[in-house]
Amino acid sequence: MSETTKNLAAGGCYCGALRYTAQLDGPVAGQCHCRACQHIAGGGPQYFHLVSPTGFQWHRGQPAQFRHPLPDTPVTRSFCGTCGTHILTQRSDQTALVLKVGTLDDPSGFVPRVAICFDEAQPFHTIADGLPTFDGIPRAK
Fold first, then answer.
1. How many CB atoms lie within 10 A of CB 12?
2. Is the pTM for the entire model greater than 0.85?
């Protein structure tokens, strides 16, 4: 099995209207505690895996999109227009796509490597012992 095939994961929305494959070979996987993610998740953090745009492909359906007009760094959120499942976020300041882990057919192998925007976490949010946390989003130097 090639490395490319081994890290290829499939997923989709809750109702099945959207289906995709994603290459999960990037090193960044984590949980985001920002208020926007809390809104989308219904209160908890969002679990994510960064993927390259060239490693992501829609196979069924086209997502609805929403771009909030107010943040300093706007993001485009792609979701199912039928059931509302949030699949991707694309930040205007990075090329990688932010794939929501809960939409994978098999998310059981996911291990968060970082918790970001932890300065916005709620008292009931939990993280694994030893997980690195960052207030805000860490930037490469």
1. 21
2. yes
CATH number at residue 111: 2.170.150.70
> What is the C-alpha to C-alpha distance for residues 82 and 62, in angstroms, rounded to an integer?
11
Residue type for 76, please?
T
Residue 21 lies in a domain: yes
Q: Closest by alpha carbon to 85, among 100, 97, 67? A: 100
Q: Quote the domain boundaries for residue 105.
A: 3-120
Q: Is residue 18 part of a domain?
A: yes
pLDDT tens digits for range 45-96: 999 999 999 999 999 999 999 998 777 778 899 999 999 999 999 988 889 9
What span, in angstroms and rounded, lies between the C-alpha atoms of 129 and 106? 24
